[in-house]
Amino acid sequence: MNQEITKLAGFTCAYTPLPLLAAAGFTPYRILPVGQAPDQAGSILHDNMCPHVKRVLDRALDDDLPGLDALVVINSCDAMRRLADAWPKARPAEPVMLLDLPYSADERAVNFLRQELLALAEKLAAGSGRLPSQEELHQSIATYNRLARLFDRLDARAAAGTLTGGRAGLQRWHQRSVTEPIDKILAELETFAADNDHPDKAAAGAPILLFGNVLAETEAFDLFEEAGARIVAEDLCTGSRQLTVLPENPAEDPYLILARGLLNRPPCARTIHAEPTGDLAEQVMRRAQETGARGVVAHVLKFCDPYLARLPAVHERLRKEGMPLLVLEGDCTMRSLGQQRTRIEAFVEMLQGEES
Amino acid sequence: MMLPYFENLIQGIEERLATDKSGIVARKRLTLETARLGKRLYSGEERITWSGLVAPYDLLAAMGIVPCFVEFIGGMLASMGSIDPMLEQADQMGYATDCCTYHRAVTGAVHQGLLPEPDFLIATSAVCSGGMAVIEGLARHFDKDLFVIHVPHEKNERAVAYLADQFRALTDFVTEHTGEALDPDRLRMAVDNTNRARAAMIETYRWARQVPSPARSRDLINFGIVMALFLGTEGGAEVAEAYRDEFARKAGENIAGVPGEQLRLLWLQNRIQFKNPLVEMLEQEYQTAVVAEELNDIAWDPIDPEDPYPGFARRALSFSLVGSTAHRAQSIQRLAKDYQVDGAINPCHWGCRQGTGARGLMGEALRGAGVPTLNLEVDCVDPRNFAEGQLRTRLQAFVEMLLDHKAAAGGP
Ligand code: SF4
Ligand code: SF4
What we know:
Chain A is an alpha/beta fold. Chain A is built from 15 helices and 8 strands. Chain A is about 50% helix and about 15% strand. Chain A is globular and about 60 Å long. Chain B has a domain at about 1-180: Rossmann fold (3-Layer(aba) Sandwich). Chain B contains 16 helices and 8 strands. Chain B has helices spanning about 1-20, 25-40, 55-60, 70-80, 85-90, 100-110, 130-140, 155-180, 185-210, 225-230, 235-250, 280-285, 310-320, 325-340, 360-370, 390-410; strands at about 45-50, 65-70, 120-125, 145-150, 265, 290-295, 345-350, 375-380. In chain B, β7 (about 345-350), α15 (about 360-370) and β8 form a beta-alpha-beta unit. The relative contact order of chain B is 0.12. At the A-B interface, α2, α4, α5, α12 and α13 of A face α7, β4, α8 and α15 of B. Bound molecules: iron/sulfur cluster (SF4) (2 copies). One iron/sulfur cluster binds near residues 100, 102, 131 and 354 of chain B. One iron/sulfur cluster binds next to α7 of chain B.
């Protein structure tokens, strides 16, 4: 991406087609549910609502955000739709662009998403004056693939406990990668990745799989490691699920590549796998076994129906295999996670006890 | 437990209908049809499916499938007074109590063995994320195939084509599971029944709009949402026609559903499904009638029997809970105007991110249209936390405020 990028496109979901945003002349800017903005969103929506969405809206209401040239919302769940509805109350001048996201990955769904992506490109172009060419989009996909591959390598090192800065450090990179221009972050991350490994204090910790939706705070990862856990795999919307390597094929329609790639990436709970059904439970179990985790921590936000409704099945599946599960309900504040410190410590102690 | 319940219900209503002298029988006909559906679901003799709310029920009827949306179970258990053990079961399974009780109830019920095994399942992304997740859970529990329907957010021709295409694929999916191809004549017949029901429902609503309304508040509770299940059937068309005829007669004779009607209210989304005295209190103490319900609405055109799939798709997209809050607000504002209501009640069903999640936005839209709105924080299917006294006081204060306004404005 050589052209100067001056416009910001806010986004809130890991399914956002970042290569398209960048190719259309925008810097993608993930609005993370962090910060100290006062609670106000409940009065526009309802208090009994996804804290991720409320926190993002709180930030908008409190002007705790840079000015956005567009907000791209993915139709991933009820809460996200409500966010799209409510945004104009907070930032009436910022155009909201909703991208509809199918629930399965069959060819009908892929074609529909392709058309949605084309429509999004046109809406973005109305703001930036640039409808990306096919070549630009291919190039953007390749650039994001470089970033995704770098993260895969760093993730493996974090799992082994040898990455400088550990998981918390990696999370900081994850956050920067979705709020800063891609070229800048890519250059810095490549330098960082070229650095030698440094065995970390957590290398000997109890291996756990951490899965769930939104856990943006870097301190949270310190908390797990301080409790004696080593996160051998992580499956979070604000972490490893933010970027996925897409196929690169200059001969193919890049919108189709993007559509197929988005629908076939590691799914979050809102995406349904008709075959086999109830795949989240299987997916978690498989991942835990593959990565040598001895326990699983689910960090799920309060009021998140897609995850909460599936937890009983995950519970049942893990219990059958004798895999311990700790469920933490989050609300996008470190305070709530801090209150769970004792439970985390007890869980890790239990895993360590089993090991010895 | 369920089959005998429905059999007894059918017998009781048939006896009452046979001896009825009042001629006010439409509601009983609806209950009878519902009980018959329940019996078919539990008889073990028919092909059944558990589905999401906006499945094409007429298409399924034409293919010999008895359909039921999963939320129906929560509502039914609540009305039977049997929901508590199901919710407790869901709690024990670790289903968060912050989630919608309709979904917790059906999850508890299935694990208590109270749901008959379906031949397959159909998830629809509308009307809510929780519903999708629950159907996926049922498919896993029963180890049955699941067909997933994505109902698009926007209402445009691209969305219609995509959804119609999914309904065509559903037809193939059903055939694969039954071994029986769709008979075009049966489909035409089903669509004719749908159009008959549609016409009669529109007429029914037209009569209900009359001042005073011939509808008693309980006549139309859950009417639109339950009628959706009967689309495509002869029985469904007959129930709708019974309503139409009864309301026409009452309107012609100037019989008010709530004698001395003083105020007219619009009810948003969910009715409270368990026995409670609130609506009766409104009628008897304040001559206040709930004349309109958000889900008692038809915003779709007749369906073309020769090519019904686009019509099925348009119908699904027209549902007020599909799409943006702005689309929903428009539907509700239209109803408020058509029914000349004095105010609206929004029962903010605990755990509903879809409807309740828009509480503030809906309140603003209704206020903007001059419709005072009362938000009632209530769980529509869980009677365990029902704060009757508190809700009664809030309703009374709201209605008194509306009466004062009306008096100040020179009416009624
Ligand atoms: S955390 Fe859950 S409810 Fe919130 S936006 Fe994500 S999927 Fe939706
Ligand atoms: S009340 Fe809301 S969450 Fe519950 S089934 Fe209805 S739309 Fe879904």
